Amino acid sequence: MEPPHSTLADRIVASERTLADRPATRVDALPFGIARISPDLPRVYDASCVEVTRPVADDELLSTTESVFTDAGLRHRRIYTTVAEVASSVGPALTSRGWSLDRLVYMAHDRRPAVASRGHSVVTIDTWASTAQAFAAEQWGGDSAVRADMAAHDRRFAARIDVRFVLADDGSAGCHVYRLGRVAQIENVYVLSHARGNGLGRTLLAAALHECREADLVFLVAEAGGWQRRWYERAGFVVVASGWSW
Fold this sequence. Notes:
Blueprint: H1 5-21, E1 26-30, E2 33-37, E3 49-52, H2 58-71, E4 79-81, H3 84-96, E5 102-109, E6 120-123, H4 125-131, H5 133-140, H6 144-160, E7 162-168, E8 173-180, E9 183-191, H7 200-211, E10 217-223, H8 227-234, E11 237-245
Parallel strand pairs: 3-4, 9-10
Antiparallel strand pairs: 1-2, 2-3, 4-11, 5-10, 5-11, 6-7, 7-8, 8-9
């Protein structure tokens, strides 16, 4: 019998929090949640955020967030939650004050048998860092400072968690696989633009799933309204929870 979505969601959120804590420079408890701050990686926006885990007044949330990010010397601001009650409570106030909203979905794999995919390998962080510059260039253009921070973030993950870097042999596609006990997350799936449309993404995902074969729960996070969500659904991923990021 398949576990209910609520059980999967609880395991996924707990695992993601642990995976987010480990590479953070600082993790602080707040009255209404958690602040994860990495001031030494100022251009990696996802590396620093205030996560709201319980209801909070709008003014308290905003003033605390401002204080946390200002004290860390960070210019951007990011607030995040997986609690629907929180999203419906603080969301209107944030958007009315100019905050943009990204809707996310957490997707669990249906555990179809993972078949090893030829043409891909698990590589070292040094190999990944060198090859992944091409992925970064397509995402962030010529901003070398952004690419440097992203590379440093990858190295921090490699030093602090169980991560596998899966790379196509020709360097045109790659992704991360994070493993935490019996839970695995597939993250940062890249396919260079010139290589798209030839099924390379599908074989990359198969290779990543093969690296997750010892896990009993595999998940990823996608944009709620993005085309990637439908692509992941065809590969056997099912939406089990939601997230909101401002």
